[in-house]
Amino acid sequence: MKFKGLRWGIIFIVLAVAIAINYLMPLKEGLDLQGGMEVVLEAQNTKNITVNKEVMQGVKAVIENRVNGLGVSEPLIQLKGNNSVLVQLPGIKDYQNALNVIGKTAFLEFKEPIYDTATGQITGWKTVLTGADLQDAKVGYDSNNRPVVDITFNSEGAKKFAEVTANNIDKPLAIFLDNKEISAPIVKEAITGGKAQISGNFTLQSAKELAIQIKAGALPVPVKLVEQRVVGPTIGKDAVDSGWKAGFIGLLLVAIFMVLYYRLPGLIADLALVLYGVIVLAIFKFIPVTLTLPGIAGFILSIGMAVDANILIFERLKEELRKGIPLISAMDLGFKRALPAIIDSNASTLITTAVLFTWGSSIIKGFAVTLAIGVIVSFFTAVIISRALMDLVVHIEFFKKLGFYGARVGINASITDEVPDEPGVFSSEVSKSKAKMSSSLVQEVKEDEGERGSAEVFSSGEKEKKQEKVLTSRKDRRAKRRRK
Amino acid sequence: MNIIGLRKWFYGLSLLIILPGVVSLILFGLKPSIDFTGGTMIQMRPENPVSISILRSVLESNNLKDTMIQQSGNSFIIRTKPLSIEEQKALVSSLESKLGKISFDKIDMIGPTVSAELVRQAIILVFVAAFLIIVYLSFRYKPVFAICGVIALLHDVLVITGLFSIFGVLFHAEVDSLFVTAVLSTIGYSMHDSIIIFDRIRENMKFIKKHSFEEIANFSTLQTISRSINTSFTVVLVLLSLLIFGSPVIKWFIVALLIGIISGTYSSIFNATALVVDWTNFRKKMKEKSK
């Protein structure tokens, strides 16, 4: 009894926590569900720099800065392998712009002209300042109210800029972005305040982009887009809506099937299944698991397995009942005998999920995590919750009729652990005779039980002994019958 | 019912399903998606009606010649080589300028190195999973069970890949990383199913003095058959409703899972245990011969 109290205690605590988490925390939806963009950028070696961990930290920092400029909520930026960065931008709509901002090399340079000494023509450009000399960049407007980018140099840069402008009065000073000239204003006077304006043919949007890129600084090495997945917002929403609908219909069908086939235990399994859903959802929210389409598939597969544990137990229960074992003992036996199969089969699934999680790509990982959580929780719901509910129900006098358990004593009796002896064993006659025997046995045993009081009185050890007694006495009877 | 006694027929039925698939695999192979070949896939819905030929001409003006276009309703799927940021931008703006407003549902780009990595990964995953399951089963049961369980599992892998090879020819079904997920879940599920029967055989082995192993295998299968079928039935119910009411994006994934679950159940009931029986009989014969 003590153990039973503990069990209900655990169940109530788990459910309370699960419901609280479900109420308080949101479910994290993956890109394929809410729409958005995922890109993988690979850093390229240059003549001067070989990509290593430090360089990658630098690349990551710069990309983080740029992403912040995009104003996406909950972006994810992480290093992947030795030379790649993974960027996830959930819910982003203007992916073209985002792709531009993130993926651009954005190497900003100020260049002064080099003149041919003979002709006075401009023959080339010489870099005098780079993005590294900048402190800040913002969108502003020039006197004609056209968008420009206002930049502020750091102290070092301000000094250099003052010097360069002083040397180049009435000459152009060009601004290059990624080796493309974006504007080449003529210097009117030496600029000492450390502030300058980049004007070009900007729209408000392109000025914003440039400001973000400049502010974020230049990447230490160029990056290349190696993988990109964009999911439009409508298709994601579609997937979620239809996914929930389909999942609900599927579950309803399963619930109906369970009740039709397993009767009262089926109803209990359905209740356990609902609680299973509540607990799994809470774990998804708590970890948090980012739910993707394959993740939902993993969840659905785990529902199948959650029902499976119950089906295994109920099939066993039916078998024991058919053998004529009284209800309460049959339930005990059903759970006990189904347990090794449940453990072994779940272990094999967990092995598979572990493999998927260790070596799989991000899509496969999501699937593995949801399936693994499902398998573990289903073990809990089948072995603890279903068990507790069954314990509760079988002790209620009203529910003691075998009809509630879908077991007709004697049907299929040839396939029990009382294995027939002769090879021609699966004939209908044998099963009929056995059916008669078993059904009469049930009544006997029931009467027994009534006299001795309910099985609860016995400790579990005694209960088992009693169980064995019933079994051996049956074997004896069978043996006698055979001798005749 | 004597399932084990009829095992030759069930082997035959398995071969009947597997053989066309294997022939198709040899002749046509699988149709890999851009996940495994590298490339760009654009799924889009133009607001105005657009014909494939106009779309093709726009693509060709962007120097995209070897492009596959697939139309379903007013939705188009374009597959082409991996496009850089600039190339994508140019393509999208020229599509919009010539075809009017377009909503882009999906734009995926996989570079060649990434795709090569995915193929490697998929193969490793299948082998590692199979190997670990053999180790676990050998430890919990006997190596015979492990090996026969894994043969049944390879049966399921062959059924799925074979059928998908045929679907690829008939319906342009592509094999992507979701397909790999489906194959791997089938492996897990099929094993799950076989183990339950094996567990029953282990339990029933106490009757080995009275009965032959073949009989024990048969009634163990019969004892567990209603649970095997009921469990699979519930999973199939959910998958079918996903197929009918769910998102078309994962249609082929669900189909693969359905095939896997059904094949996994079949092979567990009709092949795995039967193979164990044949193996044991074979060993017995060899022993008798050597005597």
TrEMBL record, chain A:
Membrane topology: Multi-pass membrane protein
Region Disordered, residue ranges: 441-484
UniProt xrefs under InterPro entries: Acrflvin-R, SecD, SecD/SecF_arch_bac, SecD_1st, SecD_SecF_C, SecD_SecF_C_bact, SecDF_P1_head
Transmembrane domains' residue ranges: 7-25, 243-262, 267-287, 293-317, 338-360, 366-390
Ranges for domain Protein export membrane protein SecD/SecF C-terminal: 225-390
Molecular functions (GO terms): protein-transporting ATPase activity
Compartment list: Cell membrane
Keyword field contains ATP-binding: no
Family: Belongs to the SecD/SecF family. SecD subfamily.
Assembly notes: Forms a complex with SecF. Part of the essential Sec protein translocation apparatus which comprises SecA, SecYEG and auxiliary proteins SecDF. Other proteins may also be involved.
Purpose: Part of the Sec protein translocase complex. Interacts with the SecYEG preprotein conducting channel. SecDF uses the proton motive force (PMF) to complete protein translocation after the ATP-dependent function of SecA.
Protein name as it appears in the record: Protein translocase subunit SecD
Organism of provenance: Thermodesulfobium narugense DSM 14796
From TrEMBL, chain B:
Cellular localization per UniProt: Cell membrane
Topology in membrane: Multi-pass membrane protein
One Pfam family of this chain: SecD_SecF_C
Molecular functions (GO terms): protein-transporting ATPase activity
GO cellular component terms, semicolon-separated: plasma membrane
Any one GO biological process: protein targeting
Keywords: Cell membrane, Membrane, Protein transport, Translocation, Transmembrane, Transmembrane helix, Transport
Entry annotated with the keyword Cell membrane: yes
Signal peptide positions on this chain: none
Residues annotated as transmembrane: 9-30, 118-137, 144-171, 177-198, 229-246, 252-277
Every Protein export membrane protein SecD/SecF C-terminal domain range: 98-280
Subunit structure: Forms a complex with SecD. Part of the essential Sec protein translocation apparatus which comprises SecA, SecYEG and auxiliary proteins SecDF. Other proteins may also be involved.
Record family assignment: Belongs to the SecD/SecF family. SecF subfamily.
Function: Part of the Sec protein translocase complex. Interacts with the SecYEG preprotein conducting channel. SecDF uses the proton motive force (PMF) to complete protein translocation after the ATP-dependent function of SecA.
Family annotation (PANTHER family): PROTEIN TRANSLOCASE SUBUNIT SECF, PROTEIN-EXPORT MEMBRANE PROTEIN SEC
Name of the molecule in the record: Protein-export membrane protein SecF
Organism: Thermodesulfobium narugense DSM 14796
Gene (UniProt): secF
